[in-house]
Amino acid sequence: MRITGARVIVTAPGGLNFLTLRIDTDEGIYGLGDASLFGREMAVKACLEDHILPSLIGLDPARIEDTWQMLYRGVYWRRGPINMTCIAAVDMALWDIKGKALNTPVWNLLGGRCREGVMGYGHASGRSAAETLENAHAAIESGYRAVRIQSRVPGIEDMYGVPRSAPGRDSIGSPWTEPGWSSAKYLASTPGLLEEARRQLGDDIHLLHDSHHRLTPIEAGWLGKALEGVRMFWLEDATPAENQASFRLIRQHTTTPLAVGEVFNTVYDALALITEQLIDYIRTSAGHAGGITGLRKIAAVAEPHNVRLGCHGAIDLSPITVAAAAHVGISTHNFAVVEAQQHFTESHEVIPHAWTFADGYLQPGDAPGLGVDIDEAEAARYPYVHRYAPYARLEDGTLWNY
Ligand code: KDG
Ligand code: MG
C-alpha cells in the first residue's frame, strides 16, 4: 500500500475550529487524524500543507514508527506545539489506516483491552458555589464518577472555567482580556468550595480541580496542603511547568495528587516530572503530543514511575482525539482517566464516531481503525473562525498566565 494524497479539512462546528487530516492510499483506504490547535490552527495547516504532506506521498502507510521518527528526528527542528500537532495528525491517520487494512480496531493492535471502559471526568462549573454544586449533582446523576469542580471566585468577574459575566462576550476576532485575577481571592475561596463538594457529593465521587497555571509554586503548595482533607483525585496545572523544578517545591509541601501537561508535546517536557515522581498524572493528549505513538512513548516512561495518564479532552480537541484516547485508554495499563467534556451536537454530526460515552465511561467501539469519519458536506457548513484564548491580567493590569 502507498500514500497517494493528503489534505487538511477545516471546519468550526459550534464555533470551535477543528482541523482534520485525511490521508488517502492507492487501495482506497483512508485515515483521519486531528490537527486542531486552539488559536494557532492556521500555522498547523500551513506546516502540514507546505512542509509535511508532500513528503508523505509514495510512503508505505504501515510504517508508522518510521514515519513518526522521520517527522521528529528527520526535520532537525524538534518538538513544539505546531510540529507535534502535525505529527499527531499524521500518526493518528496512519493508525486508522492500519486498523482498517487489518479490519480490526486500533485498540486491538495496541495490545487489546486491559479494562472494561475508560473513566471520563465531567465538568461542573458556575458563577457561585451553589450553582457549581448543583451542576455537579446533575453530572453525577447523568453517570459521571469523576467531576471537575470550578466556581467563579467572589470579586473576580471573569476567569477560566466558569460561565462568563456577559454571555455574548467572546474571543472571536481578537484576543480579549480577563482583568482582575487575584490569587489571594482564589486561595481564600477554593478550599471551602471543594470541602463543600466533598461533603455534598460523598466519598465515592472523584473530585478534580484545574488552577489553569495561575499560581506560583509556593501558592500551589499551600493550596495542595489546604485540600488534603478533601482527598482530591487531582489538582491540575497548579503552576506553569516550563521549569519542571517548580514541582519539587509543590511536592515538598503537599500530598494532594498533581496533574499537569496539557500544553506539553513530548515526553521530554515531562521527563523530570515523571522520573522524579513529582506528579501523579500526565495530561498530554494524542492530539498535541505526537499522536498515538507519542502518547505510548509517554505512557511507557511513566509506568515504572507510578505516573498515570489523564488525557486532556476539552472540546477544542476534536472527536478524533477522543477516539485516540479511547483506543489508547482501553489498552494501556497506566491510563487513569480522560477529560470527557461533552462536544457540541454539531461536532458529532461533522465527525461521526464509533466511540460512545455512557455511565461515566468511554468505549472505543469495535469499528476497524479509529472508528471515525468526517462528513465533508456538513463540515463545509461551518467555516473557520478567528478565535483565541483571553489574556489574563492581575488587578494592577500585569499580564498573567492564562
Ligand atoms: O485550548 C485550551 C483549552 O483546551 C484548555 O484551556 C482547557 O485547561 C483546559 C482543560 O483542562 O480542559
Ligand atoms: Mg486544564
Q: Find the count of extended strands (DSSP E, 2+ residues).
A: 16
* Strand order, sheet with most strands: 4-5-7-8-9-10-11-12
Report how far apart the termini are.
45 Å
CA-based shape: globular
Describe the structure.
There is one protein chain. This protein has 402 residues and is an alpha/beta fold. The protein has 13 helices and 16 strands. An 8-stranded parallel β-barrel has the order 4-5-7-8-9-10-11-12. The protein has a 3-stranded antiparallel β-sheet with strand order 1-2-3. Helix 1 packs across helix 3 (81-102). It is globular, with a radius of gyration of 21 Å. Bound molecules: 2-keto-3-deoxygluconate and magnesium ion (MG). 2-keto-3-deoxygluconate (KDG) is lined by residues 38, 210, 212, 262, 312, 314, 316, 339.
Q: Brief overview, please?
A:
With 402 residues, this protein is α/β, with parallel strands linked by helices. Helix content is 35%, strand content 19%. It is globular, with a radius of gyration of 21 Å.
Ordered list of secondary-structure elements with their pairings:
Elements: E1 3-11, E2 18-25, E3 30-34, H1 41-56, H2 64-72, H3 81-102, H4 106-109, E4 118-126, H5 129-141, E5 146-151, E6 177-181, H6 183-201, E7 206-210, H7 217-226, E8 234-236, H8 246-253, E9 258-260, H9 271-275, E10 281-282, H10 291-302, E11 308-311, H11 319-331, E12 335-339, H12 345-350, E13 356-358, E14 361-363, H13 376-379, E15 391-394, E16 399-400
Parallel strand pairs: 4-5, 4-12, 5-7, 6-15, 7-8, 8-9, 9-10, 10-11, 11-12
Antiparallel strand pairs: 1-2, 2-3, 4-14, 13-14, 15-16
Helix pairs in contact: 1-3, 2-3, 3-10, 5-6, 7-8, 10-11
The structure holds 2-keto-3-deoxygluconate and magnesium ion (MG).
